Amino acid sequence: MRGNKYAAMLTSAPLRKILLSGVLAVSVMHCSCVLAAPDEIQVYTEEMDDPGQFGLEQHINYTVHGTQTPDYPGQMTTNHILQVTPEFSYGITKNLEAGLYIPFAFAPGGNAFLNALRVRLKYIAPRQSDENMFYGMNVEVGRDTLRVSDSISTMEIRPIIGYRDARWLVSFNPILNLGLASNVSRLPQFEPALKLTHRVEEGVRGGFEYYGTYGALNQPLPSDQRGHTLYAVTDVDIRGFVANFGIGRGFVNATDPWVVKAILEVPLE
Fold first, then answer.
1. How far apart are CA 175 and CA 182, in angstroms?
2. What are the start-end ranges of the H helices in 11-155?
3. How far is Cα 68 from Cα 73, in angstroms, rounded to an integer?
4. Can you tell me whether residue 252 is helix, strand or coil?
5. Rounded CA gap, 92 and 48, in Å?
6. Distance between CA atoms of 146 and 222, rounded to whole angstroms?
7. What Rg do the C-alpha atoms of the chain give, in angstroms?
């Protein structure tokens, strides 16, 4: 990834100020710590691979302080777990993109685990070049291990609704997660995600991402039982270096009070 050039950009004064601001913004939030950090922490927008183009994003999440007691036998606890998930993608058409996730987890003792295989199909509705609103849908199915899910087969339905202009980006994903195995409830679980960022300087945006767990769609959890995590994030797109950095603070019923994450776009050409 042309490491020397990228390292120089990351150590530049403007980026140091942005990352420091994100840390301070999250550190003043209060936590009353069931929302565990997934292997992919991302709000989807309208961004797509061009037709015929391959893409690779490297998701990296580290739970600084997380759960140490499993919810069911065989579940992987998240405390001090490093999750590394390559996401391969391919532009089928201008409005359709396919993707493949391969999530790995690394435990403090040095053990490594392959936790799932998931495929997805993302659609973004056609729009005019001067149209700021965007709409779409992402559908993902996968095979999980017992370490990360009590359902070996899962599906995610993720609508995408957003707005982008020269200064602002807002994207809302009202996500529905379903367990497909016969031994679990198949009721859709509502897990909304929201992203709001503002242009700081050319190629740099700062803002927040929110992730929640609200329980079954037809019978939401009471407000004091829902899980919430808020990330201070920085999006960078400078001279071919594209990345997302975030520091997350879990509160109310989130099981992981502190999580750091990064998404790095890896050039394939």
1. 22
2. 13-27
3. 13
4. strand
5. 10
6. 28
7. 18
